[in-house]
Here is the input.
Amino acid sequence: MTDNIEIKSMIVSPAATNCYFFHLKGNIEAICVDPGDRGEDIANALEEEGLKLSAILLTHGHFDHILGVEALKRRFGAKVYAPKAEQRVLHDPALNLSGDWIGMPCTLDADEYLEDNAVIREAGFEIHMLLTPGHTEGGACFYLPAEGICFTGDTVFRASIGRTDLPTGNYEMLIDSIRSRIMPLPEDTVLLPGHEGTSVLEWEKLHNPYFRGDDEP
Here is the structure.
């Protein structure tokens, strides 16, 4: 990971989701990934750092990754990006689990829906959206090649992967996504997942059973 980027994280939502915001050093424009709730707290943290939010990136549509979006939009007017293939999940409380899991049915519409391999240019960054379905039907990762980092959402965790037993999940599809979209990245790519700790692709290839090709961990 290059030293020109500053990344902060907050644990939000009942599912202990990692919400990230990052910016180039010397630039007050920031980007937020997966604000799972506590939008006002995230906004306050950004303002305490002297930052202005320009964009919100959603790796997928589950409630624990989206509930803070509206508060951030109200405060900053930030543009929301999401995978086009995830639109159905964002629009359906039964699919995004907000109704059954927390009893607060919610829906969300992104400002721009992205096709696979779309490139976003915001806050001085070039960000590539890699469609990685499997945890949900339209889940994605956001890869910053110049900085050597990838926000993996619930596609990849340290030594594990996202669950596939929820609505629209598919195990075989997730394994294919990991092996076709994540494993070809440079081995020193830093992986920033939606839950738990940070990892590096080279380490995952050695220690993650799903990367090694084992059918079961």
Q: What stands out?
A: The chain has a mean pLDDT of 96. Residues 5-212 form a domain with the Metallo-beta-lactamase; Chain A fold (CATH 3.60.15.10).
